[in-house]
Design goal:
This protein has 14 helices and 15 strands. The protein is of the alpha/beta class and 522 residues long. It has a 12-stranded mixed sheet, sandwiched between helices. Strands 2-3-6 form a 3-stranded mixed sheet, with no helix packed on it.
């Protein structure tokens, strides 16, 4: 493929409310990186960027939020990463657009994963928005914001200046959406047609925005990918006073204001030291949204806000999620069914196996029985509850499941994050869809089904398109699920009994998953 790059004095110039910026042009797109959308002192609410003179260079990604730990690179074939310079001055965003014109294209705003404590706008290679923008004729934006102890640490007991420090990261996201509303028309986007979408923690941030009054009117719809996570990312309830006092004692500080200037490495180190004991006692340790006047709390528990109850949503997860983060340790294709049943009974016990096997056969007749060991037992249950409760209020919530095995390590059930490249039309940026077991054209077909559904939803608020079968929204008591695999189809409530049974036996299933992961590692 022949690429066309251009940057000169007049190319990719945009006038924003804060000043002129210049990006570059690549293969028909205008690309801008590292645009500052806000600034903030530690633990304080974000403020607008002060206007600048001259032209701001927007050709380099901006800083990403510092992380609590320096994890070693691993699992890169499953979830490819990009690591980048870190700094607290991380309120920046990136834009891909087909034209700096008045076309008023749909705008898709990507919220990255990593829970509320890690990740970045460029962490995953497939977060690149070029193909989505070009092929979908949309404007794509990705953002960085504060995380962990910087973004989600309640200090409200120490004064009104910290009133929403427990949601500072969420306030950053809202500030980015305000910047988009003010400026995106200059990038060829429609400020009235903004879709927020994200995976894992990014999907959770979509649910959080729906419960945040400050975000009202800044987006029109949302896509939640493996982001309804229940207790895994539960709200951080209670007061942060005890955590703050423990940190100050560990750091030798006398006043909470001193925490605003202590080096981040020292703050993070102290947090890692004092938080485990508090967590074990069930006390506040931050790191997740904090229910208060600025955030209404998890909706299934606290109720959906009426102001956002009618916003269209696409919500889904993948078959394997966390259970599929390693190669399959058994020969599922070469093992006779009788032996598969024996293995399941031996691992789970006869009573549990006899309950789960018929339900699994009914829900997934196309799968080997041993795939029961890889079935997600964490995401799908709270997702069903979320969709059920939300559908009592509207008829604009669509449910899907990414069920496509990936041709890696002899074939593997789809894992957490495996659907991201398909959403962005970026399967050619990652290795795993192209393994030796790949059925010719299948990955490309699924990519079109996923991508075209996302683009249709962003454009109209309805994901139906010619690439998929008729897909109605969920209704009260009914969840039509678009099951995306080699035989994409819509099934109603097809896995509810199975997921409920698995939830009741989650501990036994997780023990098997951990044992299998140990066999792979050792």
């Amino acid at each position: 493929m022949t690429h066309r790059f251009e940057r000169n004095r007049d190319s990719a110039l945009v006038k924003t409310a804060q000043g002129m910026i210049q990006g570059y042009e690549m293969d028909g797109l205008k690309i801008f990186k590292g645009i500052p959308y806000a600034t903030a002192a530690r633990f304080h609410a974000p403020e607008k960027v002060k206007p600048w003179e001259g032209v701001l260079d927007a050709c380099s990604y901006g800083y990403v939020c510092p992380l609590l730990t320096n994890d070693p690179p691993r699992g890169e074939l499953y979830v490819p990463h990009r690591f980048w310079p870190m700094d607290e001055n991380c309120q920046n965003l990136n834009v891909w657009t087909p034209g700096l014109d008045e076309a008023r294209r749909p705008v898709l705003v990507w919220l990255h994963g990593g829970g509320y404590s890690a990740g970045s706008a460029i962490e995953h290679i497939a977060y690149d928005g070029a193909n989505m923008s070009r092929l979908g004729d949309v404007v794509v934006v990705s953002i960085n914001h504060r995380l962990n102890v910087l973004g989600y640490f309640d200090l409200s007991d120490f004064g009104s200046e910290y009133a929403n420090s427990g949601n500072a990261g969420g306030d950053d996201i809202i500030a980015s959406l305000a910047w988009i509303r003010e400026n995106i028309a200059a990038f060829g986007g429609d400020p009235e047609n903004v879709t927020v979408f994200g995976q894992s923690g990014g999907g959770g941030k979509v649910t959080t925005l729906l419960q945040s009054p400050g975000a009202d009117g800044l987006f029109a719809k949302g896509i939640i990918m493996s982001g309804v996570i229940g207790p895994v990312l539960a709200d951080a309830e209670g007061s942060g006073k005890e955590l703050a006092e423990a940190l100050m004692k560990e750091l030798g500080l006398k006043d909470v204001h001193e925490m605003e200037t202590v080096p981040y490495a020292a703050l993070a180190g102290a947090y890692r030291k004092v938080s485990p004991a508090l967590r074990q006692q069930g006390k506040y340790v931050g790191g997740c949204p904090h229910p208060n006047a600025y955030y209404a709390g998890e909706p299934v528990k606290n109720g959906f806000r009426k102001e956002t109850a009618d916003l269209p949503l696409m919500i889904g997860s993948v078959f394997g999620e966390f259970a599929s983060f390693s190669p399959i340790p058994f020969d599922r294709d070469g093992t006779p069914e009788e032996e598969q049943i024996r293995m399941i009974r031996e691992s789970l016990g006869g009573e549990i196996a006899d309950r789960l096997i018929p339900l699994f056969r009914q829900a997934y007749p196309e799968r080997k029985l041993l795939d029961l060991f890889r079935l997600d037992t964490i995401f799908r249950e709270p997702e069903i509850d979320y969709i059920r409760e939300r559908s009592r209020l509207n008829r604009c919530t669509w449910s899907y499941l990414f069920n496509m095995d990936q041709p890696i390590d002899g074939g593997n059930t789809p894992w957490h994050c495996s659907d991201i490249p398909y959403c962005f039309h970026n399967i050619d940026l990652v290795e795993y869809p192209h393994g030796p077991q790949a059925e010719e054209g299948l990955a490309e077909r699924i990519q079109e089904e996923v991508f075209r559904s996302v683009i249709a939803f962003a454009r109209t608020g309805n994901p139906e398109n010619p690439c998929i079968p008729a897909w109605p929204p969920a209704g009260e008591g009914k969840e039509p699920v678009l099951v995306l695999d080699g035989h994409t189809r819509v099934l109603e409530n097809y896995d509810h009994a199975l997921i409920q049974a698995c939830a009741e036996h989650r501990e036994a299933l997780m023990k098997v998953a951990m044992k299998n992961a140990g066999q792979i590692q050792h």
